[in-house]
Write a structure and sequence with these properties.
The chain has 329 residues and is an alpha/beta fold. It has a domain of 80 residues. 32% of the residues lie in helices and 22% in strands. The strands form three sheets. Strands 6-7-8-3-9-10-14-13 form an eight-stranded mixed sheet, with helices on both faces. Strands 2-1-4-5 form a four-stranded antiparallel sheet, covered by helices on one side. A hairpin with a 5-residue loop joins strand 13 and strand 14.
């Protein structure tokens, strides 16, 4: 896993289906098409961001990468090794290198365990050779590094605020010295006043420990300051993938352009906001062709029938759009 030429994480044509209960009128079981041919690579040391509307598949992709979900089709590679087919025993050494920070700090910490017990648990599982003194010292060091008081160890999660709980969750993810972390909307459940504090903790941890992030968010203003590259998702597909600065300077995909227009920016005395027409189609019955064609102002007959591929443009961006490919926009 030390070869720097190999992407740390590689997702190849991943599909994920979730079966729904069958109706008494039909024995056929409908399926939610959560991911539809997603391919991304995450390089070592970067903060790779996934953005898009709720329900676009961001969290499902993160959970599939980390191993909490199995892909229906496709492959997940970590450090050059395929990991989605490994059983629990074979995957255990890899889990130490891959950790996750969950969205809701009120639900992700066991209310019956003290903070000390919560932080000791991953060490006891992954590093059984450590003695009690080593474990205690590691807990204190990690707690201090994320801005927590080591004295919090004897208290329970319900005694802390949302921001404090999320910093405890970050500490838990760092306990086994991972190299890759999936952060699933880690600040969305927090007050705006403390979101910056938690982001700073994540950025400091990356600088100090050489971490690689897969950062999931719907907040593009966070991406602008945190991410190195961005994948914009819509209905289980990646519609644009590019460097962060290029995304905000020259968005190519029509959906990306509409998303960026929704960011509040003062221009004189007015906001420039272009609402996205229509509604997101059902992931149970996906539209034919480009999944965005029903809401796209540039759609034509080809868009309605042919699925666009994620192709490289003259810039560093990859865009899945027939209109961009044909030079219509």
């Amino acid at each position: 896993m030390s070869d720097t030429s190999t992407p740390l994480v590689e997702v190849r044509d991943v599909h994920k289906r979730f079966p729904l209960p069958s109706s008494f009128l039909s024995s056929a079981r409908p399926k939610v098409h959560a991911l539809n041919g997603v391919s991304i690579t995450v390089q070592r040391g970067e903060a790779f961001c996934l953005v898009g509307e709720s329900g676009c598949g961001k969290t499902t992709l993160g959970r599939t990468v980390i191993g909490l979900e199995k892909p229906t089709r496709g492959e997940v590679h970590y450090g050059g090794q395929r990991v989605d087919t490994l059983d629990d025993t074979a995957r255990k050494p890899i889990r130490q290198h891959m950790q996750m920070i969950f969205q809701n700090p009120y639900a992700s910490l066991n209310p019956r365990m003290t903070v000390q017990q919560i932080l000791e648990e991953p060490l006891r599982f992954h590093c059984p050779e450590l003695n009690a003194t080593d474990i205690s010292e590691t807990v204190n060091e990690v707690m201090t590094s994320v801005g927590n008081d080591p004295a919090w160890g004897q208290r329970y999660p319900h005694e802390f605020s949302g921001g404090q709980r999320q910093r405890i969750s970050i500490a838990r993810a760092l306990m086994v010295s991972p190299e890759f972390i999936v952060a699933d909307e880690p600040i969305s459940a927090l007050d705006v006043s403390i979101q910056a504090q938690v982001l700073n903790v994540l950025m400091d941890a990356q600088a100090q420990r050489g971490l690689t992030y897969l950062f999931i968010t719907h907040d593009l203003s966070v991406v602008e300051h945190f991410g190195t590259r961005v994948a914009v998702m819509y209905l289980g597909t990646v519609c644009e993938l590019t460097k962060t600065k290029d995304l905000f300077a020259t968005p190519r995909h029509p959906y990306t352009q509409l998303l960026l227009s929704a960011i509040p920016r003062m221009d004189g005395q007015a906001f420039k906001h272009q609402p996205i027409p229509g509604e997101v189609p059902s992931p149970v019955n996906l539209p034919s062709g480009c999944v965005f064609h029903g809401r796209c102002p540039h759609a034509n007959d080809r868009c309605r029938t042919e699925v666009p591929l994620l192709n490289s443009t003259k810039s560093t961006a990859q865009v899945a759009c027939h209109a961009v490919e044909e030079g219509r926009i």
